[in-house]
Amino acid sequence: QVQLVESGGGLVQAGGSLRLSCAASGSTFSPSFMGWFRQAPGKEREFVATSRRNGGKAYYADFVKGRFTISRDNAKNTVYLQMNSLKPEDTAVYYCAVDVTYYSGSYSPSQRYDYDYWGQGTQVTVSS
Fold first, then answer.
1. Is 68 helix (H, G, I), strand (E, B) or coil?
2. 3-state helix, strand and coil shares in percent for the chain, rounded to the nearest 5
């Protein structure tokens, strides 16, 4: 049984920063991708960023490029999301997700169905 535990959410003013963390524990496994999604009230859950285990390459949604940085510690099965220059529209519940599939080529998973395990979510609220 795999568990993902997120932390680091909270309330911040526009222009501020937050750092989210997500630690994966449980069965012995080496997740291929560890990433983040978010879901705002009344909206679909959307892809934010993901990080490949081999090589550490990161992939981002266009709306966070230049503001958010994803990183991971493979030894700890932990992924981080550094969020800078936050905007009110970044307000959402942020979910950590893990994909255990190793893909050939340069495919980077950005769809909900790509991911096998999910955290419980952490609220991020950005005030104007």
1. strand
2. 10, 50, 40
Element (H, E) at 50: strand 46-52
The tens-digit pLDDT sequence of the chain (128 residues) is 889 999 999 999 999 999 999 999 886 678 889 999 999 999 999 999 999 988 888 999 999 999 999 999 999 999 999 999 999 999 999 999 999 888 887 888 999 999 999 999 999 999 99
24 closest CA partner among 74, 83, 70: 74
Find the angle CA(49)-CA(121)-CA(71) to the nearest 5 degrees.
35
